[in-house]
């Protein structure tokens, strides 16, 4: 019996055609995977941008609403202040219309009239802690003797803490109030004396018809807050800004003006609109309020509500699959009586926050 050795299989490589086919398939697969990855990244980018714009609009709107709900405590029948050397009764909530002129013209930092159609809003807001501390900056004090001029109050002990740079006080009978520019508080236990710049104005008080401040009036600190749209120096984009105010005539002839540099409340907010609801016939029915654009500072009976609207974007424009910011729906929004000028789509998705808030402190029935 004979045995023959087993033949070994010959080694065989890929032909040129097979190599070209494999390379082509690999390129197709890699191209598809890359396109899918880029498209997924673009979807994530656009989704984050939309969420970012929603957050910016909501945070700006909620900040405004929080301040609005605090405004005007103890001032339901107006706030007396000194303007041009004469007593003037004003609203603790008022604002300009970006489409208005004169007193209704909106103003921005430096009190220069705005040109982009956005509104502004002034609020007189009490210190949140005025009922929670005793004889300290931010605490409420009670008037002990009626009359005008320096106030004698029940401050037990020595005032503690550092007062603000430009301390503003309100003396209120919880209906009408008077705005005071504090100059000093001198403690002589068990009382203290509050002096203020307006004390030299004849008859100035929270109730001129009664001849002066009355025993039992509360004296507490307030802030004059000015909200508006301005340009954030760090980004070059529009933002919701806030400045502290002080009595003084602004560029539109209103009784408050910005005291210093504003702070950024919320970035990437490009429009701010506010309308004021007035219950002129005292019906108490919110459905019958008369809403108007802009409200003069002069006292307006029946001011009961405001509607806040803000438009915000994200940090970067949205992109399509070709990395172009050409999404046709990404255009400025028309809100209230402000219609932005027509222009090409810029890729920025706009989010609108609009909510109506009642002014509980200006409804005397709620006291």
Structure described in brief:
By secondary structure, this protein is of the alpha+beta class.
Would you write up a description of this structure?
The protein is of the alpha+beta class and 367 residues long. The protein has one domain (51-366). It has one helix and 17 strands. It has one helix at 16-70; strands at residues 79-83, 86-90, 93-94, 121-126, 141-142, 151-153, 168-172, 177-188, 191-196, 218-231, 238-247, 256-258, 263-267, 269-278, 290-293, 303-312, 351-358. The strands form two sheets. Strands 1, 2, 3, 4, 5, 6, 7, 8, 9, 10, 11, 12 and 13 form a 13-stranded mixed beta sheet that branches. Strands 15-14-16-17 form a four-stranded antiparallel beta sheet, covered by helices on one side. The longest helix has 55 residues, at 16-70. The protein is elongated. The model has no long low-confidence stretch (mean pLDDT 85).
Essential attributes:
367 residues, alpha+beta, 13-stranded mixed sheet, single chain, 15% helix, four-stranded antiparallel sheet
Task: Please provide the ordered H/E string of secondary-structure elements.
Answer: HEEEEEEEEEEEEEEEEE
Cα(first) to Cα(last) distance is 122 Å
Q: In the residues, how many domains can be counted?
A: 1
In percent, how much strand structure appears in the residues? Answer: 25-35%
Broad shape: elongated
The number of helical segments is 1
Q: Mean pLDDT, rounded to whole units?
A: 85
Tally the beta strands: 17
Q: Report the structural category.
A: alpha+beta
**What is the helical fraction, as a range of percent?**
10-25%
Q: Show unreliable segments.
A: none
Radius of gyration computed on alpha carbons = 32 Å
Largest sheet: 13 strands, mixed
């Amino acid at each position: 019996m004979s045995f023959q050795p087993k033949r070994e299989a010959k080694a065989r490589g890929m032909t040129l055609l097979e190599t070209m086919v494999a390379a082509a398939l690999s390129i197709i697969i890699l191209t598809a995977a890359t396109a899918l990855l880029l498209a997924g990244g673009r979807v994530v980018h656009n989704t984050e941008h939309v969420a970012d714009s929603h957050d910016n609009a909501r945070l700006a709107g909620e900040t405004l609403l929080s301040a609005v709900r605090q405004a005007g405590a103890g001032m339901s029948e107006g706030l007396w202040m000194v303007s041009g050397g004469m007593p003037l009764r004003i609203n603790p909530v008022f604002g300009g219309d970006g489409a208005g002129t004169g007193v209704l013209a909106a103003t921005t930092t430096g009190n220069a009239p705005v040109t982009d159609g956005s509104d502004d809003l002034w609020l007189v807001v009490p210190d949140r802690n005025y009922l929670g501390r005793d004889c300290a900056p931010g605490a409420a004090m009670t008037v002990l003797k009626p009359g005008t001029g320096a106030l004698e109050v029940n401050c037990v002990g020595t005032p503690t803490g550092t007062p603000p740079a430009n301390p503003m006080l309100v003396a209120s009978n919880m209906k009408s109030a008077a705005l005071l520019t504090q100059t000093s508080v001198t403690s002589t236990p068990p009382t203290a004396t509050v002096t203020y710049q307006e004390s030299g104005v004849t008859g100035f008080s929270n109730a001129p018809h009664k001849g002066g401040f009355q025993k039992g009036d509360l004296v507490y600190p307030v802030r004059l807050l000015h909200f508006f749209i301005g340009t954030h120096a760090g980004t070059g984009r529009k933002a919701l800004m806030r400045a502290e105010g002080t009595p003084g005539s602004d560029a539109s002839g209103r009784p408050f003006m910005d005291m210093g540099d504003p702070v950024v409340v919320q970035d990437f907010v490009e429009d701010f609109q506010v309308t004021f609801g007035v219950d002129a016939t005292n019906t108490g029915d919110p459905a019958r309020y008369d809403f108007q654009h802009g409200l003069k500072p002069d006292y307006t009976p029946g001011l009961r509500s405001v509607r806040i609207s803000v438009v915000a974007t994200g940090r970067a424009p949205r992109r399509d699959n070709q990395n172009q910011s050409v999404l046709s729906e990404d255009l400025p929004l028309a809100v209230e009586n402000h219609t932005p000028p027509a222009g090409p789509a810029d890729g920025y998705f706009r989010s609108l926050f609009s909510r109506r808030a009642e002014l509980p402190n200006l409804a005397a029935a709620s006291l």
